[in-house]
Specification:
The chain is α/β, with parallel strands linked by helices. The chain has seven helices and ten strands. It has a seven-stranded mixed sheet with strand order 3-2-1-4-5-10-9, with helices on both faces. A three-stranded antiparallel sheet has the order 6-7-8, with helices on one face. The radius of gyration is 17 Å and the shape is globular.
Length: 247
């Protein structure tokens, strides 16, 4: 069962996780670098959570930014931060797999959305929903778990970065993959599902996207980093980035 972000303290715990160094120095750095220039663009952040990337995109110069998430508590959290620091972002509770009536965004981004698809049918539905929100020529950029972690032998110890991975015995489509977030006062298990890169490419292609590409993460070193601190992360990345275009 997919993690329910409306339960217990999950939304609040996830905010703590956002503060961990790898989220800014690896995930956000890689994601925003791949996204590139958003000046003057209309941008939609799908599975926006509490709005971390949504706010980054607005501050980076996007003309209009909206965020959608299926979790009411996540959207509530994003709206609280919008009220605290108004940026003109519209947050809505919405299912990413639902078909939109108007395809009017120049860019759609979705960090950690496709990892919740347990079957190719679910994955295809998500991708069709994403495509329905993009204008012709619009671009989609996403972050997903790295399917190659199932081939890492041994699996690296990611605890120094603030998380652990719990993998299924075999890399079969839909296999449960748990990301265990190590927080200051608790742990939080996020349940994702394994899909090979070929499944992502197939679903996006069938949804109408072209120019599919896979990108490896990079890191932005903090001034006080040990030079070898990021070696395991870069050699055995836990996530990859994908992008494609709607013709």
């Amino acid at each position: 069962m997919v993690t329910d972000y409306d339960e217990n303290r999950i939304a609040e715990q996830y905010q703590q996780y956002r503060a961990q160094s790898w989220r800014s120095h690896a995930e956000a750095y890689s994601f925003m670098k791949l996204i590139g220039d958003v000046e003057g663009k209309r941008v939609l952040d799908v599975a926006c959570g509490e709005g971390n990337f949504t706010r980054m995109l607005r501050k980076a110069g996007a003309a209009e930014v909206a965020g959608i998430d299926i979790s009411e508590r996540m959207i509530d959290s994003a709206r609280v931060q919008e009220a605290r620091q108004p940026l003109g972002i519209d947050y809505r509770v919405e299912d990413a797999g639902a078909m939109a009536e108007h395809a009017d965004f120049d860019l759609v981004v979705a960090a950690w959305l496709l990892v919740y698809a347990q079957t190719r049918a679910e994955l295809l539905q998500m991708c069709r929903g994403l495509a329905s929100r993009l204008r012709s020529g619009g671009r989609f950029v996403t972050v997903v778990n790295n399917p190659a972690v199932y081939g890492f032998d041994p699996l690296p110890d990611y605890r120094k970065y603030g998380f652990e991975l719990s993998l299924a015995d075999h890399a079969v489509e839909g296999a449960l993959t748990k990301v265990i977030l190590l927080l200051e006062d608790s742990t939080l298990e996020i349940e994702n599902y394994y899909m090979p890169v070929a499944a992502y490419e197939s679903a996006l292609t069938h949804a109408g996207f072209r120019d599919f590409a896979v990108h490896m993460p990079e890191v932005s070193h903090a001034p006080d980093d040990d030079p070898a601190y990021w070696d395991d992360f870069l050699k055995y990345p836990s996530f990859i980035l994908l992008d494609c275009v709607r013709p």
